[in-house]
Inverse folding.
């Protein structure tokens, strides 16, 4: 289907960059068809036997879980429930989380809120990769969990855990702010079970 | 005379201890595997709103930014010299006032010259 | 109250200007031949009594045997409205003149029709996919689009 | 002697604090002055128009909540008006009044968010937004009382409304409409005479009247450029012809006028709600609509005045239970068409203010 010979476009439109972006999306679509299993490895490990390490673990996990900073990455409708949770009524700052960092470099938690489309998938994967360790992901809303309402659409990723490993799933469309707060408390429980003094792939 | 200022030494030590801790602690925590280490290519890429960066960034900027920086530095340095004078205003008396005015006048000449040469125009 | 212009009068004016351009006109819709698209658009915009200066929306529908492009025109001064339709029978390479010259508001809507239907708009300044990524195969809103 | 300067390319990309969702602008910058911009859409394109063709008419109502997720009620109303026009259904009086009350509450909430995020983009980070959220939470409580949901209400049905209002709704609504003007006064003191806001918004991003019409913009963007065009007055749908209210317009069409229009429209919405509350008749709330709706063959275009502009649904039916074609007239996408003309030659900070004043919602842009 060759394009017609329209006049020299004085409108700036970068076809080469679009083509590379298109290839990136196709590449991610081929790569990410199977589910990435959730990083739950530390759930069933019993805590450290050594007394000093156990209390150091407790201190480190407490400090990590009590100030988890989310990335300011809103995709769709759930983003506005997340902002409602961050505003004065549902007050996410009770958990030390009211600072929504725009750049992933300074954030620990990526709340995927809204429908993830294939065109946005490589970008979201890049944001997740560029976050500092240890990082956690909350899949908020049924669109993030399984594609939700738009599951059999040609342009929607049926579930974010095909792209990035997810720690906590929050059902709802959109989930009420109380549900998001409950999900965050579950994430805190999960962080508190982490063991820190072993050499292993990232948490 | 000197003994009156020994507390400055404590500040110096505190500064070094703090600096050492700020640098040493992450290295120590990395050694104990508290800070996980998971290098990958994407992480060391430049973050630009989730997109790959395109084009080069070492480019020729407009010169007016540099003009502003120069003028700012001159005035800033002048202010640094005013501080000690301002603290001891009473003891130094009128002669110090005249010298400071001469000093300010010299810098003002450069500032007005730059102003007239339209260096501060922000087109 | 928005008056739905009688298509027959407007068709008569159009016929006077470009003989043989309207195929049929009923209610408030006129169906014209596709090669008269740009001429009819400029005529409807600048004609004295009509002056449709506001393109309300522009969309397309796939009726399996032909495509139909729908222009919903409104005149803000006279508060009357008209629907202009064009049928494209060529399904392999559907082609239509772009009206971005007449109404600049058609820019993104024509790109959307190109993206989701594959209808080519000649003369469009920046015709490429607007919603889907460059390597996407096929045109989703066509009835014969396989997932 | 002008030194040769080079330009460089920056993405105000999908994940950006002030792009109101996943919208990307590819800037070509010379220093901080924008030489060219290319808006890139599609990061939230879920193919709603394709999915809608697979479901029945009443099931598609659920998609409309996710279109402009800041104004779900008005999306429902637009879709309901379109299908009722197609199928020729007469909606009972009480349902019409309930729809008007909910739509005007939604307009206030959407304008609150529009103004709140505009001041966010200008630099007053989060302070005015938290004030606006305090009012929005009150509106969401009212909606919660009526249909149990905070954001995606699915409240309206084809031919009427899903549930009647509980008794405590009207007193709560009365209290809300009495206190809201005082809060809007509070925002006026906070914002209208604020020196920074005036300097940052006056004479920035001027959209002339002809350009606004030619770019087929709608809603506050069109009225800010001096065109008195509001579907509630131009083509009164539902019972809007029984209320008297004005259409605020401005003349210059800059960011400040678009901000002013939103504040004035909030006041007008309160007047409409007050009148609707007094004239609220008794009666049933749902017309007799067959369980499986099969509208006659044909097509219809129903439109309403949404908070962002004229929101319309173009429906083609071939007699089956699901629509043959459903097209949504996206006011946000059409308001974005003049973006390139407004933004070239402007500094980046002003470009973000202009973009914020156009007040788009990505669910409606990408559909």
């Amino acid at each position: 289907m060759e394009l017609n010979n329209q006049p020299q476009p004085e409108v700036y439109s970068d076809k080469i960059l679009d083509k590379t972006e298109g290839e990136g999306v196709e590449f991610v679509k081929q790569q990410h068809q199977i589910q990435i299993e959730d990083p739950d490895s530390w759930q069933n490990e019993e805590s450290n036997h050594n007394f000093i390490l156990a209390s150091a673990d407790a201190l480190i996990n407490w400090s990590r879980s009590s100030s988890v900073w989310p990335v300011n990455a809103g995709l769709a409708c759930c983003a506005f429930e997340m902002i409602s949770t961050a505003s004065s009524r549902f007050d996410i700052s009770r958990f030390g989380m009211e600072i929504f960092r725009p750049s992933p470099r300074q954030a620990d938690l990526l709340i995927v809120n809204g429908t993830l489309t294939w065109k946005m998938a490589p970008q979201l994967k890049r944001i997740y990769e560029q976050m500092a360790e240890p990082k956690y992901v909350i899949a908020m809303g049924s669109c993030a969990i399984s594609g939700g309402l738009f599951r059999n659409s040609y342009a929607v990723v049926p579930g974010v855990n095909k792209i990035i490993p997810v720690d906590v799933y929050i059902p709802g469309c959109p989930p009420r702010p109380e549900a998001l707060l409950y999900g965050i408390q579950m994430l805190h429980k999960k962080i508190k079970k982490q063991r820190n003094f072993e050499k292993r792939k990232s948490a | 005379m000197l003994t009156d200022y020994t507390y400055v030494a404590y500040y110096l030590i505190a500064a070094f201890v703090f600096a050492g801790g700020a640098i040493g602690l992450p290295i120590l925590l990395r050694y104990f595997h508290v800070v996980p280490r998971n290098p990958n290519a994407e992480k060391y890429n430049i973050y630009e709103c989730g997109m790959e960066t395109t084009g080069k960034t070492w480019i020729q900027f407009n010169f007016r930014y540099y003009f502003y920086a120069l003028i700012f530095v001159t005035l800033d340095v002048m202010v640094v010299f005013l501080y000690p004078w301002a603290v001891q205003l009473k003891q130094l008396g009128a002669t110090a006032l005249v010298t400071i005015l001469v000093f300010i006048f010299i810098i003002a000449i450069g500032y007005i010259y730059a102003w007239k040469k339209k260096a501060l125009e922000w087109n | 109250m928005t008056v739905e212009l009688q298509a027959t009068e407007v068709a008569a004016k159009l016929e006077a200007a470009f003989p043989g351009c309207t195929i049929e006109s009923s209610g408030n819709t006129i169906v014209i031949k596709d090669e008269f698209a740009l001429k009819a658009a400029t005529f409807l915009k600048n004609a004295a009594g009509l002056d449709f200066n506001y393109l309300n929306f522009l969309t397309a529908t796939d009726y399996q045997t032909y495509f139909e492009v729908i222009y919903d025109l409104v005149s803000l001064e006279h508060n009357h409205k008209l629907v202009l339709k064009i049928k494209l029978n060529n399904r392999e390479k559907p082609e239509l003149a772009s009206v971005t010259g007449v109404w600049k508001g058609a820019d993104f809507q024509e790109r959307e029709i190109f993206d989701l239907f594959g209808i080519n708009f000649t003369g469009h300044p920046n015709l490429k996919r607007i919603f889907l990524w460059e390597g996407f195969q096929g045109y989703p809103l066509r009835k014969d689009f396989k997932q | 002697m002008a030194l040769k300067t080079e330009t460089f390319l920056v993405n105000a990309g999908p994940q950006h604090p002030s792009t109101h969702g996943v919208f990307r602008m590819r800037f070509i910058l010379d220093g901080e002055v924008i030489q060219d911009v290319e808006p890139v859409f599609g990061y939230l394109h879920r193919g709603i128009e394709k999915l809608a063709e697979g479901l029945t008419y009443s099931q598609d109502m659920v998609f409309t909540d996710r279109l402009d997720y800041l104004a779900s009620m008005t999306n429902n109303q637009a879709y309901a008006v379109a299908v009722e026009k197609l199928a020729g259904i007469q909606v009972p009086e009480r349902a019409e009044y309930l729809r008007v009350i909910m739509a005007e509450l939604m307009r206030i909430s959407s304008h609150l968010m529009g103004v709140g995020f505009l001041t966010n983009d200008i630099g007053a980070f989060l302070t005015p937004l938290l004030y606006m959220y305090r009012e929005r939470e009150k509106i969401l409580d009212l909606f919660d009382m009526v249909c149990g949901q905070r954001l995606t209400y699915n409240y309206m049905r084809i031919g009427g409304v899903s549930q009647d209002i509980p008794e405590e709704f009207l007193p709560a609504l009365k209290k809300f409409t009495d206190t809201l003007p005082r809060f809007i006064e509070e925002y006026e003191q906070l914002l209208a005479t604020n020196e920074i806001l005036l300097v940052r918004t006056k004479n920035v991003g001027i959209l002339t009247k002809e350009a606004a019409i030619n770019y087929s913009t709608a809603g506050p963007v069109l009225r800010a450029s001096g065109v008195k065009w509001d579907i509630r007055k131009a083509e009164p749908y539902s019972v809007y012809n029984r209320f008297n209210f004005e259409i605020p317009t401005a003349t210059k069409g800059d960011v400040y006028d678009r901000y002013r229009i939103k504040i004035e429209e909030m006041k007008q919405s309160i007047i409409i709600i007050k009148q609707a509350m007094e004239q609220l008749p008794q009666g049933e709330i749902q017309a007799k609509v067959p369980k499986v709706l099969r509208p006659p063959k044909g097509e219809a275009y129903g439109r309403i005045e949404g908070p962002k502009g004229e929101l319309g649904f173009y429906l083609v039916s071939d007699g089956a239970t699901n629509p043959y074609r459903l097209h949504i007239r996206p006011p946000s996408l059409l308001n974005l068409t003049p973006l390139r003309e407004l933004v070239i030659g402007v500094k980046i900070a002003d470009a973000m203010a202009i973009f914020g004043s156009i007040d788009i919602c990505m669910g409606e842009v990408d559909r």
Summary: The mean pLDDT of chain B is 87. The domain at 2-116 of chain B is CATH 1.20.58.1610 (Methane Monooxygenase Hydroxylase; Chain G, domain 1). The longest helix of chain B spans residues 89-116. Chains B and C do not touch (no CB pair under 8 Å).
